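Input (structure):
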C-alpha cells in the first residue's frame, strides 16, 4: 500500500523529514505514518501559533505544539485498534482523491472517457478509502442514511421566491446525497458496507486529523480521541471480545473543557458549510455565472436572517 504522495506529508519543511511514507505492509503502518510525520515535524520546527482558522471558539492566546504532540502520542497508542478484523474492509483499494465533475470527462453518450487531477491517488485499505464525494454530500452531513427520501418542506408554495430558491438548493443537495447512497447500496455493496461499518466515520476522522499539518488546532483530534474512549467497548466488541482496556484516558475536567470547545467549533464550521450549501457555492466562493443573480438574492436573505438573530441576541444581553 502507498507510497503516500498527499500534500500533508510533504508540506513545507516536512518534505525533508526522514520519515516513512510508504510503501506500507499493513494498515497499522498507514494509520501511524501521518502522526509520526507530524510529531517529527513539530519536534523540529513547531512553534506556538494562534489557530489559523477563523474559530472564535479557540482561545485567543497562542497554542502550544506540545499539546498536539501529546494528542498524537495518544493516537498512536490506539491506532492498532482502529483496524477492522473483517478482511473485506482492509483489502487494497485505489480511489480518486478529488472526484468532482470538473475532473471527469464524458462523451455525448455520457460515457466516461477520462479522469484528471488524480496525481495524489494512493493505495489504501477500503475502510480508509470509502466515503461520499463532496458533490454528493448534503447539508445534513455525510452520515449515510437510506431511511428517508428527501422532500421539499410543507408550505413551499407560500415561501418567497428567494426562500424557495434556497429550499430548492437544499433539496438538490439532499437528493444527490440520497441517490448516491441508494446507488452505492445496489451497485457497490462492499463500499456500502465500509461506509456503514461500526465507528467507521470516527476511524477515518481520527486517521485524517492525526495526519493533517498542525495549524494551532489542539481541540479537534483530542475531541475525537475522547469520543473513542467513550465508545471503546463498542469498538473492541466489534473486533475482539477479549480486547484490552483502552490504553488512554482523560480526566473529567479535560473531557468537559475539550468537548465544550469542540462543540462551539463544530457549530461554527457547520454554519459555514450550511451557508455554502444553501447558496450553492464552493469553499472559495466560486459560483457559475448563470446562477449569480439567484445566489446573490439567497445571500441577502441569509444576511438579513443572521443580522436579525444578532440584533435579538444583543437586545437580550442589554
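Output (sequence):
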Amino acid at each position: 500500500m502507498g507510497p503516500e504522495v498527499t500534500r500533508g506529508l510533504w508540506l513545507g519543511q516536512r518534505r525533508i523529514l526522514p520519515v516513512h511514507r510508504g510503501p506500507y505492509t499493513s494498515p497499522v503502518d498507514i494509520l501511524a505514518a501521518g502522526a509520526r510525520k507530524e510529531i517529527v515535524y513539530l519536534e523540529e520546527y513547531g512553534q506556538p501559533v494562534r489557530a489559523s482558522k477563523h474559530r472564535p471558539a479557540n482561545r485567543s492566546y497562542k497554542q502550544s505544539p506540545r499539546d498536539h504532540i501529546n494528542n498524537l502520542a495518544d493516537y498512536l497508542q490506539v491506532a492498532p485498534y482502529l483496524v477492522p478484523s473483517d478482511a473485506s474492509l482492509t483489502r487494497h483499494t485505489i480511489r480518486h482523491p478529488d472526484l468532482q465533475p470538473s475532473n471527469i470527462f464524458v462523451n455525448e453518450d455520457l460515457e466516461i472517457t477520462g479522469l484528471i487531477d488524480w496525481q495524489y491517488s494512493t493505495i489504501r485499505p477500503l475502510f480508509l478509502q470509502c466515503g461520499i464525494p463532496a458533490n454528493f454530500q448534503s447539508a445534513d452531513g455525510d452520515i449515510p442514511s437510506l431511511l428517508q427520501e428527501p422532500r421539499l418542506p410543507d408550505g413551499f408554495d407560500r415561501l418567497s421566491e428567494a426562500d424557495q430558491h434556497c429550499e430548492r438548493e437544499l433539496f438538490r443537495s439532499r437528493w444527490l446525497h440520497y441517490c448516491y447512497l441508494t446507488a452505492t447500496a445496489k451497485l457497490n455493496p462492499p463500499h456500502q458496507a465500509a461506509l456503514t461499518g461500526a465507528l467507521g466515520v470516527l476511524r477515518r476522522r481520527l486517521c485524517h486529523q492525526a495526519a493533517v499539518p498542525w495549524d494551532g488546532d489542539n481541540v479537534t483530534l483530542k475531541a475525537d480521541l475522547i469520543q473513542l474512549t467513550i465508545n471503546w467497548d463498542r469498538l473492541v466488541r466489534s473486533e475482539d471480545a477479549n480486547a484490552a482496556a483502552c490504553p488512554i484516558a482523560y480526566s473529567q475536567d479535560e473531557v468537559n473543557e475539550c468537548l465544550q470547545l469542540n462543540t462551539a467549533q463544530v457549530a461554527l464550521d457547520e454554519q459555514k458549510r450550511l451557508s455554502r450549501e444553501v447558496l450553492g457555492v464552493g469553499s472559495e466562493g466560486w459560483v457559475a455565472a448563470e446562477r449569480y443573480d439567484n445566489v446573490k438574492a439567497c445571500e441577502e436573505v441569509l444576511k438579513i436572517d443572521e443580522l436579525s438573530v444578532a440584533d435579538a441576541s444583543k437586545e437580550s444581553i442589554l
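Notes: The mean pLDDT is 86. The chain has two domains: 7-279, 282-317.
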